[in-house]
Design a protein that fits this description.
Elements: E1 5-10, H1 14-23, E2 29-33, H2 40-44, H3 46-64, H4 78-89, H5 92-103, E3 106-109, E4 112-116, E5 119-122, E6 125-134, E7 138-140, H6 154-157, E8 166-170, H7 174-185, E9 189-193, H8 205-218, E10 221-223, E11 228-234, E12 237-242, E13 247-250, E14 252-255, E15 259-261, H9 268-271, E16 275-276, E17 279-280, E18 293-295, H10 308-322, E19 337-340, E20 344-349, H11 352-356, E21 362-368, H12 373-377, E22 384-390, E23 396-403, H13 406-418
Parallel strand pairs: 1-2, 1-6, 2-3, 6-18, 8-9, 8-14, 9-10
Antiparallel strand pairs: 4-5, 5-6, 7-15, 11-12, 12-13, 16-17, 19-20, 20-23, 21-22, 22-23
Length: 444
């Protein structure tokens, strides 16, 4: 059978684009995107979020230096900050599409729906491919409660023209914590409603409790073991009813209780693709239950973090599988993940919980480092670092960092773990001193 394309990619985000560009020199490729070219991360996800975070963190650093030479306290100009963000994001869709055109990669804008394992319909157009890759990402969960139409999402938050006076977030994961921190630093009254007593459940609780106290000291009001049961809007206000903590009148409320794979429109059941609650089921070659169809990124069920770099790894891997450049199962490196919460909370490798369950196998070094030069200089008295070392090999295998520059240190730790560097070799080179990296030899 002759196909219109060698490979069709559904999703024009980082993962899908990694597939398309990886195959473009060898195959005829089509990319289909139903939303903005470039995907979630650069348009309304991690990239614009970190731009706003950078501004509010600069403000917070000035406050830390209040008695050290910077007495004036700055204020966030929300419209100017948002203009700064839009100066970047508004160029992403056209820039991404221009890149596809320049590379000679065919692309369609519209909602894709499977007809069979080789055929996709987009509007009134039908196209076929020898292989099809699903890279559709994820979409916010919206709690199914009375008045749920009043919920806004992270996309709405990252495009606010003005900051509401009182805001709420349902959920206590990455999205809620990061956006709540931006909002409170910018001057809003902030409430977080969480159905249980944990925030950031993938991180050690002793660390999340430290972070919770820091955020509460900033003014974030946590309503733990609390479910939002109904919303009612009047004018520019929303009444938030809960099951255990009364009701609250806010100006807006954001659904931030996780994200689910964006699969609803694909007709996967109709063509026999197996889908689990966490996403599409794939094998160790990222192939679905239909042999001609692969899936990557946030669309799939997996144990590794659903992060943009992971989507890129998977996209490049699938391209190599389709091109027959590899027959090996996918192997993931150590994947660091960070919550930009002001301070940052980051971890990589073996978890603290796993290490505590195997004391004969691992050595845990837990260190408050707020008095160290690096953190004293930054006035970060709450800085804390835990490292996990394999007793047999002497190699670093895991780390957790709570600090204002945790992203830097966790990257150093990730490199050591990925390359299997023994402790004795971790500092057999000379980094810039003083710096975050120059502290490595003291952690384990």
């Amino acid at each position: 059978m002759a196909f219109d394309y060698d490979t069709i990619v559904i999703g024009g985000g980082p993962g899908g684009l990694a597939v398309a560009y990886g195959l473009n020199s060898q195959q005829k490729v089509l990319v289909i995107e139903g939303n903005l070219w470039g995907g979630t991360c650069p348009n309304f996800g991690c990239d614009p979020k970190k731009m706003l975070y950078g501004v509010v963190e600069a403000k917070r650093q000035v406050i830390r230096y209040h008695e050290s030479g910077l007495p004036a306290e700055p204020k966030v100009d929300w419209p100017a900050m948002m203009a700064f963000k839009r100066g970047y994001t508004e160029k992403i869709p056209t820039g991404t599409e221009a890149g596809l055109k320049g590379a000679g990669i065919d692309h369609l804008h519209g909602t894709a729906q499977f007809v069979d394992g080789h055929t996709v319909r987009v509007g009134d157009q039908q196209v076929t491919g020898q292989q099809i890759v699903i890279a559709t990402g994820a979409t916010p969960n919206i709690p199914d409660i009375p008045g749920k139409a009043a919920f806004k999402t992270s996309t709405d938050f990252l495009n606010l023209d003005t900051l509401p006076e009182k805001v709420g977030f349902v959920g206590a994961g990455y999205v809620a914590i990061e956006l709540a921190n931006i909002a409170v630093e910018a001057g809003a009254e902030v409430h977080i409603f969480q159905h249980n007593d944990r925030l950031l459940r993938n991180f050690p609780q002793e660390y999340t409790e430290r972070l919770k106290k820091i955020l509460a000291d900033k003014g974030i009001q946590f309503h733990m073991n609390t479910n939002v049961t109904a919303l009612q809007t009047t004018d520019d206000q929303v009444k938030v009813t809960t099951d255990s903590d009364g009701s609250f009148t806010l100006n807006t409320i954001f659904a931030a209780a996780g994200r689910r794979p964006n699969l609803d429109q694909l007709n996967l059941d109709g063509i026999g693709v197996t889908v689990e609650p966490q996403g599409i089921k794939v094998d160790d070659h990222l192939r679905t239950s239909v042999p001609s169809i692969y899936a990557i990124g946030d669309a799939i069920a997996k144990s590794v973090p659903k992060l943009t770099p992971v989507s890129g790894i998977e996209g490049r891997y699938v391209a190599s599988v389709i091109a027959c450049d590899t027959h090996d199962p996918i192997q993931y490196p150590a994947i660091p993940h960070t919550v930009f919460a002001g301070p940052e909370l980051a971890q990589v490798g073996v978890t603290l919980e796993s290490a505590k369950q195997a004391p004969d196998h691992y050595t845990i070094s837990d260190q408050p480092v707020g008095s160290w030069y690096t953190y004293h200089r930054l006035q970060d008295q709450n800085a804390h670092v835990t490292t996990i070392v394999d007793k047999t090999s002497g190699k670093l295998v895991g780390a957790i960092v709570l600090a204002i520059n945790a992203e830097e240190l966790i990257n150093d730790f990730s490199e050591l773990i990925t390359h299997g560097t023994p402790a004795k070799n971790a500092t057999d080179w000379t980094p810039v001193y003083p710096s975050v990296t120059s502290d490595l030899g003291y952690f384990y």
